[in-house]
Amino acid sequence: xxxxxxxxxxxxTKRGQNVTFRCDPISEHNRLYWYRQTxxxxxxxxxxxxxxxxxxxSRLLSDRFSAERPKGSFxxxxxxxxEQGDSAMYLCxxxxxxxxxxxxxxxxxxxxxxxxx
Amino acid sequence: xxxxxxxxxxLSVQEGDSAVIKCTYSDSASNYFPWYKQELGKRPQLxxxxxxxxxxxxxxxxxxxxxxxxxxxxxxxxxxxxxxSAVYFCAASIRDDKIxxxxxxxxxxxx
Lengths: 117, 111
Fold this sequence. Notes:
Shape of chain A: globular
Helix content of chain A: under 10%
Oligomer: heterodimer
Number of strands of chain A: 11
Number of helices of chain A: 0
Number of strands of chain B: 11
Largest sheet of chain A: 7 strands, mixed
Distance between the termini of chain A: 33 Å
Radius of gyration of chain A: 14 Å
Shape of chain B: globular
Largest interface: A-B, 28 and 25 residues
Structural class of chain A: mainly beta
Distance between the termini of chain B: 41 Å
Order of helices and strands of chain B: EEEEEEEEEEE
Structural class of chain B: mainly beta
Helix content of chain B: under 10%
Strand content of chain B: over 45%
């Protein structure tokens, strides 16, 4: 499968614990995005990378959230001191990133479903 | 910032009939409008998109129209089939970063 992959697919944790999710984009895609989706809602933008540079962060991304893309390939999203309100589907997407200043199709991964007890 | 409103939230149509989903956006600088289909428990998948320099685009049974003056765009599905049942999201983007999604329309195709 050459699409976007995410691990783990499901995560159950206790309030206050730290969790880390991984996203592997489509090979050679320069742009990588993280979104959060709660039940009955559309995906909400969290943050975005162009290669290894994190270019934008939503105000939804509190200081408990951190994302990295150290080598410009895979990315990790860490949530520290999880809260019940963090329960959601965390989606990763990637796009080629070859057209400067123009939005390209974003291809989504299957998501990581987080449940904070 | 950009805001995308989507209607209706739920839509039921008889198999073979047409379905129309409407969206409005707030930022006139938006120039890219994708539509995603999401089946239960699965990832959002792009079904069609349109850019602001085009008024209409069609792909088999699916068409999208864009009215830049009114800042609204619509998805039209003709000859609906059971496999069209899903949640559909409209979205808008200003530049090469985030996409802002609507809240989704749950489409039911009735036998």
